[in-house]
Amino acid sequence: MLAIYKREMRSYFTGVIGYVFLVLFLAIGGAAFCLTTLFAMNADVSSFFTYMLIFSAVILPLLTMKSFSDERKTKTEQLLLTAPVSITGMVLGKFLAALTMYSGALLVNSFYFVILYRYAEIKTANLIGNVVALLLVGMTFIAIGIFVSALTENQLSAAVGTMAIIVVFLLIGVLNSLLPSAYWLRYVFNCISIFTRFQTFTNGYFDLSSLIYYLSVSAVFVYFTIRVYDRRRFN
Predict the structure, then answer these.
(1) CA dihedral for 121, 51, 132, 111, sign (positive or negative)
(2) Spatial CB neighbours of 33, under 8 Å, sequence gap ≥ 6
(3) What is the pLDDT of residue 66?
(4) Lower Cβ count inside 10 Å, N or C end of the chain?
């Protein structure tokens, strides 16, 4: 797994994907920070992280679209399948590499708020809750992305397919707010909505059920990816 992880991290910086992702994420993060805090003269961090959640849904597929689709396109997939590494290790190596890239960019963006401590009263618990929530959401998006990437050799199709699935998860939260409060479907949507569970953390509360939800969804999509390659190895 470590060899795959190092290989993926190296590929992000020997190609353009890693640089494009970092530039876009940091540029958008800086713009969102200026608009939601500096220009608005508002010390509430929730708006910034809500914007970053939406932007992550668009940017993260760029990070995961080449994870497996590029291997199939360049015919190096067979080398991975015959390499002395387990399918689980291969998938986790790629997943953790993408998560490392995302976590690093998110950490740099979060440093913007260190500046605000000198000029405004920041609720530390609220800030930490937002960072943790966005990290968990990003982890879920990455797991979805590598699964979709494993299904196609076209990087553009992988990116679009990942965005489509992510949008469905986000729209569930919107539909949930439109349903009558007593309607049973609202309870179901509330349980599976990424955005609804994200808001729990943004309010400064540590929600164990939401943590389990994000970890479970990520684990399910990672497992699906493993099963895809298990079938290919035996075929």
Answers:
(1) negative
(2) 48, 109, 112
(3) 85
(4) C
**What amino acid is encoded at 120 in this protein?**
A
Closest CA to 113 of 100, 131, 101: 131
For residues 194, 195, 201 and 207, what is the CA-based torsion angle, rounded to 10 degrees? -40
Query: Do 26 and 111 form a contact (C-beta atoms < 8 A)?
Result: no
Q: What is the CA radius of gyration of the chain?
A: 19
Phi, psi of 148 (to 5 degrees): -65, -40
Q: Give the Cα separation of 218 and 94 in Å (integer).
A: 14
Lookup result for tokens 């608009």: 35
Helix, coil or strand: residue 144: helix
157-213 tens-digit pLDDT: 898 999 999 888 888 877 766 666 656 677 777 777 787 788 777 776 777 888 898
Whether 69 contacts 158, CB under 8 Å? yes
pTM, 2 dp: 0.90
Inter-residue contact 16 to 107 (CB < 8 Å): no
